[in-house]
Specification:
Chain lengths: 184, 466
């Protein structure tokens, strides 16, 4: 029951403050980061520029995953055609050399795009930890508005600086619309 | 974004430019207005009637395809010398229509044309359905569609592989990649909106289905950061892709030596023609739905105007292509090429050729007139005419070139049969039926990208000192 013991120590996932505008949530996120909080996340119905950086998120590896996928696609396309034309099924087509690379360009290109695009999409969802139909933040009824018109900042209980009363009063100082405990 | 004030042009005269998003909207009104179309429990009679008609017409496709499987491609009018007929005409036509959706979603995103936010979702859906219709034709045209998987390279007991020097194999890769990436792009764009629908739906089944499709999207700042990167990357990858697809389709012709096909102008001229016809289809869909669902706040006259300008620009590129074809036929000194061109002008299919020349070189200039570009009724009519002209263009390219090539003994005409027509009209029914179902169950306008258009979505600079 080590897991249960952990839950006893922190019966909540975190404390969540609700804001009206992107400016407010951005200010709150910056304030929380400046105050020393690190384990937090902000939620918004549409991207708010600078919000991810404000909560200390800088390592975005989606582009790298996409690049690796695209190069892999390129290599696959080229290797596939060279192997088929030179080894598996050599055909004399109008006297052209077996290794007629200009005619391989298009399939190489298409597979570069295909693998790159799939890597960007699947990589993005995987790095985001999605699909994840259940998440503690959904336990807060007000959170339904996070996909409509409200902005949220959630300071998580795993943060070393987290403290029920201290964090709550810190969040209150940021003038939120409401504050809610996020149960597990 | 909603620059709802008079704009000065170069001469200093002021004119009124309609906004991209009508004034007075908030995050909430945008969300509610778009999601209400999907989340309402009622089914409107008009929608049901249209669905019944298009599904009925799609049934024609079912009948035609079934009879084709039973009898073989002989039920179509194709024969030597014209072996490509309607199947390839319609393939090129449909896939061209799809191009506008990708241009709107990818190229205009990279160019920061924020007006595309109101039209990208349904234009992408249009792309998907158009590519489905397109893909059907070459598969049926193979004669043995149940063996269509032979088109792909896979290890098999026959020990044979596709012939990678053939443009037809390139086409398989181009079209299947295009469909896959369009689907991925469309779905990625949908995920945040599916989250919105999950959180707004009252119906339990709807909540569950949208919830599963939304993958647990919760709008985390970290997620949005990666999401925007992925979205931009997909746009960046789709941009060369969309230009390449019709290029590869044009290679199906241009790599051959048939007079009328063997020309280097085909790739750019095909791509321009694709975007031209695609915007016509986007307008044909946008004009009725913005009236039926009262979406004039989101799809404003500015959108119609911009799309009409796109049609005009690409239409004129196509017109240039026709003029160059004529010039090269005369200047090139190739008697077969000249014969082909004279056959277009005076031969069996001269009415088709002259019709498309009239529409795409002369009639399209009507779009220079701002009144036409801002009148939904006129624009709808112009779009229908343009789609017909672009269909005729593909008919002329495919059929006239094959009809009379090098040997007089192998000349012949192609007359489409009722089964050709049934298959073609059937795909139109399928397309509209699929589109009607789409606008009923998924948000036809991207909700989060519309919210992003509001000035309120841009945070002010905030300074925090610890």
């Amino acid at each position: 029951m080590s897991h249960g013991g952990e839950q006893l120590l922190s019966p909540v996932y975190g404390l969540m403050a609700e804001f009206d505008t992107p400016t407010d949530v951005l200010a709150a996120a910056k304030a929380a980061y400046a105050d020393g909080y690190r384990n937090m996340d902000a939620y918004s119905p549409q991207p708010v520029h600078g919000l991810a950086e404000a909560i200390g998120f800088h390592k975005n590896r989606v582009a790298f995953v996409c690049l690796v996928g695209a190069l892999l696609g390129l290599a696959t396309g080229f290797a596939l055609q060279v192997w088929i034309n030179l080894v598996a099924y050599p055909l004399n087509i109008g006297g052209r050399p077996l290794y007629s690379w200009p005619s391989f360009v298009i399939v190489c290109f298409e597979l570069t795009i295909l693998f790159g695009g799939l890597s960007a999409c699947i990589g993005m969802f995987a790095l985001n930890g999605l699909p994840m139909p259940y998440h503690p933040v959904f336990n807060v009824p007000e959170f339904a508005a996070a996909t409509r018109d409200r902005f949220f900042l959630c300071i998580e209980s795993v943060d070393p600086k987290f403290d029920m009363t201290g964090t709550r009063s810190f969040l209150e100082g940021l003038n939120p619309e409401s504050i809610a405990e996020v149960p597990y | 974004m909603s620059d709802n004030h008079p704009v000065q042009n170069a001469n200093g005269t002021e004119y009124y430019q309609p906004p991209v998003l009508a004034p007075g909207h908030t995050f909430e009104t945008i969300t509610d207005k778009i999601s209400a179309i999907v989340l309402t429990s009622g089914i409107s009679l008009g929608w049901l009637a249209l669905l019944a008609i298009s599904a009925g017409v799609a049934g024609l496709l079912g009948i035609a395809a079934t009879y084709l499987l039973y009898k073989g491609v002989g039920i179509w009018g194709i024969n030597i010398p014209v072996g490509w007929g309607f199947a390839i005409v319609n393939f090129v036509w449909w896939i061209g229509i799809g191009h506008a959706g990708t241009l709107i979603s990818a190229i205009l995103l990279l160019l920061k044309q924020s007006w595309r936010n109101s039209i990208n979702r349904f234009a992408e859906a249009m792309t998907l359905f158009a590519v489905m219709c397109a893909g059907l034709f070459p598969v049926l045209h193979t004669g043995r569609p149940w063996l269509a998987y032979w088109l792909f390279p896979y290890p098999n007991t026959m020990q044979v592989w596709p012939q990678f020097r053939s443009p037809l194999v390139w086409d398989v890769f181009a079209v299947s990649t295009y469909f896959t990436i369009s689907l991925v792009f469309w779905y990625t764009g949908l995920v945040p909106d599916l989250g919105t629908l999950r959180d707004s739906a009252k119906n339990k089944v709807a909540r569950f289905v949208y919830g599963m499709l939304a993958l647990g999207w919760r709008g985390s700042a970290r997620h949005w950061h990666r999401y925007e990167t992925a979205y931009l990357l997909l746009a960046g990858l789709s941009t060369p892709l969309v230009l390449s697809v019709h290029t590869v389709v044009s290679f199906d012709f241009a790599v051959g030596i048939v007079p009328g096909w063997h020309t280097t102008i085909f790739p750019p001229y095909f791509v321009a023609g694709a975007i031209y016809s695609g915007f016509a289809m986007v307008l044909i869909l946008a004009i009725p739905i913005r009236a039926a669902y009262n979406l004039k706040d989101f799809i404003t006259d500015r959108h119609l105007d911009n799309m009409a300008k796109f049609m005009l620009a690409t239409g004129l590129i196509v017109a240039y292509g026709y003029i160059m074809e004529g010039f090269v036929a005369w200047y090139g000194g190739n008697p077969y090429e000249l014969n082909m061109f004279m056959n277009r002008l005076t031969g069996f299919y001269a009415p088709e050729y002259l019709g498309l020349v009239f529409i795409n070189i002369f009639f399209v200039n009507i779009l220079w007139w701002p009144k036409v570009r801002r009148s939904p009724v006129a624009l709808f009519f112009v779009s229908v005419v343009i789609l017909i002209a672009m269909w005729l263009e593909r008919f002329v390219i495919v059929v006239i070139s094959l009809q009379k090539d090098f040997l007089v003994s192998s000349w012949g005409e192609y007359i489409p049969t009722k089964w050709d027509w049934a298959t073609y009209i059937g795909t139109l029914g399928f397309f509209f039926a699929a589109f009607l179902l789409f606008i009923r169950v998924l948000p036809m306008i991207s909700i989060f990208e519309m919210r992003d258009l509001l000035p309120a979505s841009k945070p002010h600079e905030v300074e925090v000192h610890s």
